[in-house]
Design a protein that fits this description.
A hairpin with a 5-residue loop joins β3 and β4. Among the domains are: 42 residues; 85 residues, Nuclear Transport Factor 2, Chain: A (Roll). α1 packs antiparallel against α2. It has a four-stranded antiparallel beta sheet with strand order 1-2-3-4, covered by helices on one side. The protein is built from four helices and four strands; from the N terminus they run αααββββα. It is flat, with a radius of gyration of 24 Å. It is α+β, with helices and mostly antiparallel strands and 183 residues long.
Length: 183
């Protein structure tokens, strides 16, 4: 239904803009927006209504490459490294949809960590893994980021600072050693 709204807006835009090149660009842009919104909109719908969507309501063994990619990318987003404590407990829900430029895989992961701010052992997070059809690029969309306890963030921050300080001292020691060795 949302895609029909964009197509209707596109037709009204064509009537208002007389230039044929502008019309073509406007239609292409609206078609792209329409398909993108349709894919985003379908994430919230029941997967049983979609003909080209596959789902599994039973928990799966956490060895899915898309789930592993989502967790690995999420871990990279933490400045302090606190997301390194995350692990996959269950893959609750997974479905795929073939988009125009990407194959979109929707995943709901139950992640475990002792540092969740909620105090729970595990929490659920929704991800979309987007694999580009024509280029070897995979990207990730996260619905909501894990919120961690402040003391855990501080602990990981102190650890990160100590590791960087150690690496910096080693780099300076190597530079001093090279400077002394040169004639």
């Amino acid at each position: 239904m949302l895609s029909y709204l964009f197509v209707s807006v596109g037709i009204m835009t064509v009537r208002l803009i007389p230039n044929s090149i502008t019309i073509l660009v406007a239609l292409l842009l609206l078609c792209f927006i329409s398909s993108t919104c349709a894919v985003s909109f379908s994430f919230g719908r029941s997967a049983k209504k979609e003909a080209d969507t596959t789902t599994s309501s039973q928990p799966q063994v956490p060895n899915d490459p898309d789930a592993e990619f989502a967790l690995a990318e999420l871990k990279k987003l933490s400045e302090t490294g606190v997301y390194d404590s995350l692990s996959i407990k269950n893959i609750k829900n997974e479905g795929s949809r073939d988009g125009i430029f990407h194959i979109n895989t929707m995943i709901t992961l139950e992640l475990a960590s002792p540092y969740f701010k909620s105090g729970l052992e595990s929490e659920e997070f929704r991800f979309i893994v987007m694999k580009h059809k024509f280029e070897n690029i995979t990207t990730l969309a996260v619905d909501e980021f894990p919120v961690m306890r402040e003391d855990a963030i501080e602990e990981y921050y102190i650890k990160m600072v100590k590791e960087r300080r150690k690496k910096r001292k080693q780099a300076f020691a190597e530079l001093i050693g090279e400077a002394e060795a040169s004639p």
